[in-house]
TrEMBL record, chain A:
Entry-linked InterPro entries: ACP-like_sf, PP-bd_ACP
Boundaries of every Carrier domain copy: 11-97
Pfam families on file: PP-binding
PROSITE patterns referenced in this protein's UniProt entry, alphabetically: CARRIER (PS50075)
Organism: Paenibacillus rhizovicinus
Name used for this protein in its record: Acyl carrier protein
Automatic annotation (TrEMBL), chain B:
Family the UniProt entry places it in: Belongs to the thiolase-like superfamily. Beta-ketoacyl-ACP synthases family.
Organism: Paenibacillus rhizovicinus
Domain Ketosynthase family 3 (KS3): 7-402
Molecular function GO labels: 3-oxoacyl-[acyl-carrier-protein] synthase activity
Top-rank lineage group of the source organism: Bacteria
Official protein name in the record: 3-oxoacyl-ACP synthase
Length: 107, 775
């Protein structure tokens, strides 16, 4: 897995669109360019449903190593609102993990 | 003298159980009295990386002593559980173990996941072995029960997920009422599956603490097990002095037509089923004195279910003792309905009502109810209701009467065997084309030459191109075929209203019965692959809903707004004719005036391996996929309304085991009131493995013996695809009699395991016999 803590928010956002949404959810006829950063993902906008939300949650762990366990449902809902909020959530999570992890070589 | 068919009543005279609280009713009830739950730590597979580590597993491995080593090799655990529960039920009934001479005993098995453990044991979907893969298909579980007890009557596997055993009991009740069987074994079975557990886990549906339905904590606990009942005519049960646990008064089925996993938040589907059950039972809401609710404990279910029940019972609901047994047994999926019904009936015989364990305070939407909390209550309710709901939107509701004392004026639902049923619409998705009104004459696209039309085989249909408004992303091909075929049949029948008038009179709604042997094997393969290759904690949530094969019927119902009576079944090759028999009987019973019956299959990598396991790669016919749908209605109502009717469905026969084919033919002729020599043509659908076709042909010829009889194989022309072929046989028979040159044609479907169903299709007489008699 890539070290996401050193990668720009823009690149995380593009990966969210391509890997987490388009590929993981097998969205047909949708390209990354079709997904605006601020477009709502659920209900309106991209029109995803609850079953797809769980697929995104699995994808967060598989693609970015970000675990969502223990996060309250309403908070999680805010994180998963659009591509931009997901990317910010990933960025914050991987930074936090990187800080907790001892730096390579210091062991 | 047996009761006339139009007033035959049905009794439960034997019961068997295998669940987390024990494998005898005595043990189970003593634990229920103690307020014991069967839910505990899972020992069967690791759960450390999942959100929950608990479930309701069987405590003992009864199968180890019950079966021989060879039998354990032969049957999936689903079939083993079912056989053990059915054996107990038969012993309890005092009937011989198998059909008595001159009688017909059949079986209806409800299951959510069929033989999924036989694939799980291999932990691959690409390198499957034949032996274990052959135990997997859904129909195999019902057939194994039939083989074990050497049954000879109608045998079917009902796969409407968590409502399956409720539907199976209803189907079995109908088979007796309608005269197709003298005794039926009906029940459900589902062993705990690692992959299914992973699926519920990824949907965040599991509770880390034991489930507490209707109470403050959300989430379900999975369970496992089986239970069976023996059903027989009440009159015979009384004559032989059998123990009568209950009279089955009636049942209702429906589909939410809402979503593959989430219930309609308004509970309309369960409300429709409960109202239908009451209507057919002739029981008023005020007579129901106990409700065993589905009550899974999830946030979505409990609230929606109560809303649906309130729409039927109104404020009266608050006064009716109500409980969910899921906190005792876990959610045993396909076995849930029958486990909950049988344990309720047993408890009631002892003057007790099941409780809802782990109950603290009501959750939002479940306030004000008369919930039997934590301790069993005393009670002797005369009429009870048992409800279940499922993925795929299917619901079942059963009304039973626990005591025959004071049995005045029992209302028996109206079954009128004289009502004539006609085929008024045909829709098919076969090869590269959509066919309306006739399968043999496809609608050609403007850009397509006749020469380009493949006769059958692979289906290239795209719902996205045909009707984008009914398509949704990732929709599996079988769902697309099914929606395409059903939508076309509705159009052909001219049913522009779509039958959604559920608030209106029931005759305006449309019933829907779907047959598929395998469901979307492509989706099932993708889900299992995600579990096996990535790990159970990374199970695919988007494919999990399609591991239950009623998902095809459910998605079709959702996209075409079919909220009425709804069922889905497997037999391994006779589904079309079985669905037709079920629909005709239901129309004659006053369920709805109109029914759609559809059957379909889809080819995939997994289905090829199932073919190999079943010897179908040796078939003389090429593989066929697609879907065919027929629209059926009361023939006289149609004619009076000026609607053209293509053909009449005049009689059915369904039989299993040695001599099944001949017995099915005899049964269909008897019901149609025909002599063998009156049959002018036969359309045969069979697997076509070496020697099979010749042997079947010989039996058909010996039975009918007409010198000029025309016998044709639908598979020769279209190919072989388990369930779709038998619907093609019906459809082709309708085309044969439509011009009037032939009066009576027999359509026959024979499954991979020798389950047989036959139907007599007749040319349409403008007047019914009754009308002629009057004239």
């Amino acid at each position: 897995m890539k070290n996401w803590s050193t990668i720009s928010l823009e690149e995380i956002k593009e990966t969210v669109k391509q890997k987490l949404l388009i590929e993981r959810l097998e969205l047909e006829d949708v390209t990354a360019a079709d997904i605006d950063d601020d477009m709502p993902l659920f209900g309106e906008g991209l029109g995803l449903d609850s079953v797809e939300a769980f697929e995104i949650m699995v994808g967060l762990e598989v693609v970015f190593g970000v675990m969502v366990e223990g996060i309250a449902a309403d908070q999680l809902k805010e994180h998963l609102y659009n591509a931009s909020s997901i990317a910010k959530f990933i960025e914050a999570s991987v930074r936090e993990q990187a800080e907790l992890r001892p730096a390579a070589g210091s062991l | 003298m047996a009761a006339a068919l139009d007033r035959r009543r049905v009794a439960i005279t034997g019961m068997g159980i295998l669940g987390a609280l024990g494998d005898t009713f005595e043990d189970v009830l003593s634990r229920m009295r103690e307020g014991e739950t069967g839910i505990g730590p899972i020992g069967r597979f690791p759960t450390a990386r999942l959100h929950s580590g608990i479930g309701a597993e069987l405590r003992t491995d009864k199968a180890a002593t019950f079966f021989t080593e060879a039998q354990r090799q032969k049957y999936d655990l689903c079939a083993q559980y079912a056989i053990m529960a059915a054996d107990q039920a038969l012993r309890d009934s005092g009937l011989p173990r198998g059909p008595a001479k001159g009688t017909r005993m059949g079986a209806a098995l409800g299951t959510c996941n069929g033989g999924i453990l036989s694939l799980e044991a291999q932990w691959t979907v690409t390198e499957l072995d034949d032996e274990r893969t052959g135990r997997y298909p859904f129909y195999q579980q019902g057939d194994d029960v039939a083989d074990y007890f050497r049954l000879n009557g109608p045998v079917t596997t009902i796969h409407t997920a968590c409502a399956a055993s409720g539907n199976a009991i209803g189907y079995a009740y109908d088979m007796i009422r309608w005269g197709y069987a003298d005794t039926m074994l009906a029940g459900g079975s589902d062993p705990l599956s690692h992959a299914v557990y992973a699926g519920f886990n990824v949907l965040r549906a599991l509770n880390p603490a034991p489930a507490s339905p209707f109470a403050s904590h959300f989430g379900l606990s999975l369970g496992e097990g089986a239970a069976f009942v023996v059903l027989e005519p009440l009159e015979r049960a009384l004559e032989r002095g059998a123990t009568i646990y209950a009279e089955l008064c009636g049942y209702g089925l429906s589909n939410d037509a809402y979503h593959e996993t989430a219930p309609d938040p308004e509970g309309r589907g369960i409300g429709t089923a409960a109202a239908m059950a009451l209507r057919h039972s002739g029981v008023s809401p005020s007579q129901i004195e106990y409700i065993n609710a589905h009550g899974t404990g999830t946030q979505a279910n409990d609230q929606a279910e109560i809303k649906g029940l309130r729409s039927v019972f109104g404020e009266r609901l608050d006064g009716i003792p109500l409980s969910s047994s899921k906190a005792y047994f876990g959610h045993a999926l396909g076995a849930a309905a029958v486990i909950e019904l049988t344990t309720s009936l047993y408890a009631i015989r002892h003057g007790l009502l099941p409780a809802t364990l782990h109950y603290d305070e009501p959750r939002a939407g479940c306030e004000g109810l008369n919930i039997i909390a934590n301790d069993m209550a005393e009670g002797k309710p005369r009429f009870i209701m048992n409800n279940n709901s499922a993925f795929g939107g299917h619901n079942s509701s059963i009304v039973a009467k626990t005591s025959l004392a004071d049995d005045e004026a029992a209302v028996v639902s109206a079954y009128n065997p004289k009502r004539r049923i006609g085929i008024v619409g045909i829709g098919a998705v076969i090869g590269s084309s959509v066919r309306q009104g006739s399968v043999s004459d496809p609608i050609r696209r403007a850009d397509q030459d006749a020469a380009e039309l493949p006769k059958a085989g692979a289906c290239t249909f795209s719902l996205k191109a045909f009707d984008p408004s009914r398509y949704e992303r990732r929709m599996n091909r079988l769902c697309q075929f099914s929606i395409g075929a059903v939508r076309t049949a509705i159009a052909d029948a001219g049913w522009a209203d779509g039958g959604q008038a559920l608030d209106g009179p029931p005759e305006r709604a449309i019933g829907f019965i779907c047959g598929t042997s395998r469901g979307s094997t492509d989706s099932i393969g993708k889900f299992l692959n995600s579990v096996f290759m990535n790990g159970p904690e990374f199970a695919s949530s988007i494919y999990f809903p399609y591991t239950v094969i009623n998902s095809i019927a459910g998605k079709t119902a959702e996209k075409l707004a079919l909220g009425g009576f709804s069922s889905s079944l497997s037999s391994g090759g006779a589904e079309g004719i079985m669905a037709a028999a079920y629909a005709c009987g239901s129309i004659r019973s006053g369920v709805h005036d109109r029914f759609l019956i559809a059957a379909g299959e889809e080819r995939s990598g997994l289905s090829e391996q199932i073919d190999r396991a079943k010897g179908l790669t040796e078939s003389r016919f090429r593989p066929l996929e697609g879907s065919v749908c027929l629209a059926l209605t009361d023939l006289d109502v149609a004619l009076q309304g000026g609607q053209p009717v293509m053909a009449e469905l005049q009689g059915f026969g369904m039989a299993y085991g040695e001599g099944a084919l001949a017995a099915a033919i005899d049964g269909a002729l008897t019901e149609a009131g025909l002599l063998p020599e009156q049959v002018e043509g036969v359309l045969l659908d069979g697997a076509g493995r070496p020697g099979e076709w010749e042997a079947q042909l010989q039996i058909v010829r010996a039975r009918l013996a007409g010198p000029d009889i025309l016998i044709e194989s639908v598979n020769e022309r279209y190919g072989y695809g388990e369930s779709v072929g038998s619907m093609l046989a019906l459809e082709a028979a309708a085309e044969w009699v439509k011009p009037g040159a032939m009066r009576h044609v027999l359509a026959i479907g024979i499954s991979v395991n020798g389950n047989a169903a036959a139907a007599v299709i007749g040319a349409v007489d403008k007047q019914s016999d009754e009308a002629e008699e009057i004239a």
